[in-house]
């Protein structure tokens, strides 16, 4: 498997939560892979994407679905249908709603300069995020609908989502079972970006580190299990 993604960063292995989700899944499923950090975009104009035996697969969820079948790696085979449905709802809530109200809001609107100092990107990337980035995300978020709300309303949406995730996780080690399943790749990829790669002044970071500490413990647990080389990568 050849995984196309961004270059590494000093805070997280990938600043793209969808990329960290997919790479974490590859590690969970023990599927050998190599990275291409050239930021080459897929035919859909996005990352991540993969090439497997000459076949191009785009979108992190489609990649996971394809890899699961191709390598016979069903991380959810022990779950009942209700748990699988809950996993689907968690994934789509995180990707299609929470992401916009937390990560994107925190980075590009709540504290752009603070974020750029934190992640220490090169000058060309810094220029992109300072100039084109907010305009592009504003257009996307307006079409999505969440960009039509005030910052206070967007923060409220993100808070409600994170509190719901915290309740669902509770005192469990993982979201759906006593062992990691596919949904954990997604939840880890996004929560890790909220915890390590957004401004520390952002509402989502403060909420995680002061109140929803079970989500922080969860991220640390997943990190220790699947990313023993985290410090080496981010150094």
Summarize the model shown:
With 235 residues, the protein is mostly helical.
Walk me through this protein's architecture.
The protein is mainly α and 235 residues long. It has one domain: Glutathione S-transferase Yfyf (Class Pi), Chain A, domain 2 (Up-down Bundle). Helix content is 61%, strand content 6%. It has ten helices and four strands. Strands 2-1-3-4 form a four-stranded mixed sheet, with helices on one face. The chain is globular and about 45 Å long. The two termini are 25 Å apart. The mean pLDDT is 96.
Write the layout of secondary structure elements.
Elements: E1 2-4, H1 17-28, E2 34-36, E3 49-52, E4 55-58, H2 60-70, H3 81-110, H4 112-119, H5 123-144, H6 151-169, H7 182-196, H8 203-210, H9 213-226, H10 230-234
Parallel strand pairs: 1-2
Antiparallel strand pairs: 1-3, 3-4
Helix pairs in contact: 1-2, 1-7, 3-4, 3-5, 3-6, 3-7, 6-8, 7-9
Protein name: GST N-terminal domain-containing protein
Pfam families: GST_C_6 (PF17171), GST_N_4 (PF17172)
Domain Thioredoxin-like fold: 18-103
